[in-house]
Amino acid sequence: MRLAKAAALPLLLIVGAELWFRGPGAGSESLAAPSAAFAAIVEALGDGTLVTATRQTLTAALGGLAIGASAGLVLGFLIGLSKTAIALSTPSVELFRPIPSVALIPLAMLVFGFGYGFEMSIVAFATFWPCLILAQAAASQIEPRLMEVSRVIGLSSTQRLFKIVLPAAMPRIFVALRLAAGFALVVAVTVEIAANPQGLGYMLMIAQQSLRPELMLGSLIWIGLIGWGVNAGLNALQGRLFRHQQVAGGKP
Amino acid sequence: MLARPPEPAIAFDAIRVDLGGKTILTDITLDVKPGEFICVMGPSGCGKTTLLRVVAGLVQASAGKLSLFGKPVQGPSRKVSVVFQDYGRALLPWRDAAGNVALALEAAGMPRAEQRPLIETLLAKVGLKDHAHKFPGQLSGGMQQRLQIARCLAQDPEILLMDEPFGALDAMTRQQLQDEVLALAAERNTTVFFVTHDLEEALYLGDRVVALLPNPGRLARIVDVPLARPRNQLATREHPDFLAMRRDLFDMMHETH
Ligand SMILES: Nc1ncnc2c1ncn2[C@@H]1O[C@H](COP(=O)(O)OP(=O)(O)OP(=O)(O)O)[C@@H](O)[C@H]1O
Ligand SMILES: [Mg+2]
User: Fold this and answer.
1) CATH of the domain at A125
2) Pocket probe mutation, ligand 1, options B16, B39, B41, B48, max atoms within 8 Å of Cβ
3) Residue range B16-69, pLDDT digits in tens
């Protein structure tokens, strides 16, 4: 029933669009009927172009995410453990963080040329900062009572790290990872649209330039589906992994 | 047979505590005998928690000397365990009941195989035998506090510090837990330092009741409670001596307030 209610509006829009493009809107050069977009995507799936483009985009997004997030999470976590480190690093972080990641496209292109290195470096830069900041918050916001418990119970500092600090910070760190994964996809597609001749973003550009609105719309929907799928998967994983821990603002 | 050490379990010697430039506690001198159940009470803000934290080694005294069994306190020790009032924050939410008890054993470096039977015994002792695999979020407040007590017992402490441990529980659960703690302490001859703001609770549990006054926190009265043990929720609380002491302490706390 809830599903039916949620689906009602999109379905209505799709039916409306279909009717419009079959009637008064037929022959549009910028938009196409949903059925045409669907047919175009099925065709692209059949001839392998969509699979290749999807693989390229996901590889670049995941590769960049792996680099950016692991560096950001580890560094942020370490900084978050010490008040001095937070104080020392905050000014530099605030200096570099506001640089829009896409502004690095020209530089990265010069350094890496077209291809994965180029795209991944930008994704890595874009995901590094949110991970750094959220991991820092996760490490510095551990329940002080738990730290006291670890002291009175007599845990060594290694034990404290692995038995208290890391598990306590884990849900927040996962939230950071989830956000960064969404970011990674957006940035990868952006880089492809702007400059890198590969992946779904490039496919989108080619469809536009060769006046195939149905393929462009189809790719757009496909990208949306992938983003939705990644997020839903990570949400489900978060719910499973941390079902006993509640994190303010971190509920999937 | 091992002779009890002649030293008091806890010896406060002219303890003063300053925090944030303010004197919180001053001139606390008191000996707690081994195996004694001592209750500390007083109005909110008089420094009960601070005093307990000094014993736990979490706060350092600004002046004076604190010794446990004759040894000066350097910091937290495994021989002293603390039951915090906010059980919801003191338990690890990602570990089940058995895992939470195990934490204390892991700290002591006990091999896993030996932990198992001990955890079972401890959970049974606090009435959580059937809840070993439940997580704190799945337990009621009373059960969570029982779990925290089990974790403290796993430390096999010589001194048990309890900071208003039942303050957040309903009256019924509270009375049950009072009796359970009395039984556990008697069984192991543990020295208990019990903070409460509830006068009746202090009298019901304690061998002695220490009353503090605020601004700055200082000793007001130390009262012996010669009521028979084991105590009984009805008989003890209706005993004329209990009532007389209650009246006496009540008047004292209100006069000087
Ligand atoms: N870390 C600290 N820095 C500065 N002041 C503190 C600190 N900890 C406690 N105090 C102050 O010390 C006084 C005593 O606090 P404490 O928590 O020991 O009181 P309490 O008797 O336990 O009160 P309650 O019954 O409300 O728990 C309070 O005025 C409190 O504001
Ligand atoms: Mg207190």
Assistant:
1) 1.10.3720.10
2) B48
3) 999 999 999 999 999 999 999 999 999 999 999 999 999 999 999 999 999 999
Q: Which SS3 state, helix, strand or coil, does residue A208 take?
A: helix
List the single residue in B with minimal CA-CA distance to A163. Answer: B103
CB–CB contacts below 8 A, A to B: 64
Total domain count, chain A: 1
The burial class, CB within 10 Å (0-12 / 13-18 / 19+), for B203 is buried
In a domain, A133, yes or no: yes
Any idea which of B3-7, B198-202, B230-234 has the lowest mean pLDDT?
B3-7
> What is the SS3 assignment for chain B?
CCCCCCCCCEEEEEEEEEECCEEEEEEEEEEECCCCEEEEECCCCCCHHHHHHHHHCCCCCCEEEEEECCEECCCCCCCEEEECCCHHHHCCCCCCHHHHHHHHHHHCCCCHHHHHHHHHHHHHHCCCHHHCCCCHHHCCHHHHHHHHHHHHHHCCCCEEEEECCCCCCCHHHHHHHHHHHHHHHHHHCCEEEEECCCHHHHHHHCCEEEEEECCCEEEEEEEECCCCCCCCCCHHHHCHHHHHHHHHHHHHHHHCC
DSSP letter at A252 equals -
Look at the pTM and tell me if it is higher than 0.90. no
How near does any CA of chain A get to the CA of B72, in Å? 16
Chain A residues with CB under 8 Å of B92 CB are 146, 163-164, 167-168
B197 lines ligand 1 (CB under 6 A): yes
Strand B63-68 versus strand B71-72 pairing type: antiparallel
CB spacing of B104 vs A146 below 8 angstroms? no
Kindly determine whether residue A163 and residue B93, on different chains, have CB atoms separated by under 8 Å: no
A233 assigned to some structural domain: yes
Q: A244 and B94: CB-CB below 8 Å?
A: yes
C-beta separation of B100 from B139 below 8 A: no
Q: Please tell me the distance in Å from B254's CA to the nearest CA on chain A.
A: 33
Task: Provide the domain limits for residue A197.
Answer: 52-237
Q: Which of these, B220, B231, B136, lies nearest to B182 by C-alpha position?
A: B231
Sheet containing B22-32: order of strands? B22-32, B10-19, B63-68, B71-72
Does A243 map to a domain? no
Q: Is the distance from CB of B47 to CB of B212 less than 8 angstroms?
A: yes
Residue B254 has pLDDT above 90, yes or no: no
Asked whether residue A8 is domain-assigned, the answer is no
Tens digits of per-residue pLDDT, B111-137? 999 999 999 999 998 999 999 999 999
